[in-house]
Amino acid sequence: GYFQGAAQMKSPVDFDKNYEGWGQNHKWKGQFKINWIYIKDVPNREMRHLKNDLNDGKPVPHSRDCQEVPFELGVQVLDIFDKYRNSTSILDDFEYY
């Protein structure tokens, strides 16, 4: 698998609004604004050595979307995103949808 990007949350969650674009709309409630920092594919193997204490010490690739991470771990993840030279991103897939 791949990490497909990293974003900064720019607003609180507004639970009175929902995004209707997901295939399973009933699973996620609320909306919030983000600012994309990186949009690129980074293989899970690049982050497997990083462990998240806020997720029972599991490797970062075993996280769910929007998993909270400690500040120091977030800095390490962003450093990997910054240094990894990708050749693909999720944007390449949009023509198929």
Descriptive account of the structure:
This protein has 97 residues and is of the alpha+beta class. It is 13% helix and 23% strand. The chain has 1 helix and 4 strands, in the order ββββα. The chain has one helix spanning 71-83; strands at residues 2-9, 34-43, 51-52, 58-59. The strands form 2 sheets. The chain has a two-stranded antiparallel sheet with strand order 1-2. Strands 3-4 form a two-stranded antiparallel ribbon. A hairpin with a 5-residue loop joins strand 3 and strand 4. It is globular.
* Helix residue percentage: 10-25%
- The beta-strand count equals 4
Give the strand order, joined by hyphens, for the main sheet.
1-2
The parts where pLDDT drops under 50 for at least 5 residues are none
Query: What profile does the largest beta sheet have?
Result: 2 strands, antiparallel
Order of helices and strands: EEEEH
Tally of individual helices: 1
Q: Taking Cα atoms only, what radius of gyration do you get, to the nearest Å?
A: 15 Å
Q: Helices and strands: which structural class?
A: alpha+beta
> What's the N-to-C terminus distance?
20 Å
What average pLDDT do the residues reach?
91
- Which term fits the overall shape? globular
- Beta-strand residue percentage: 15-25%
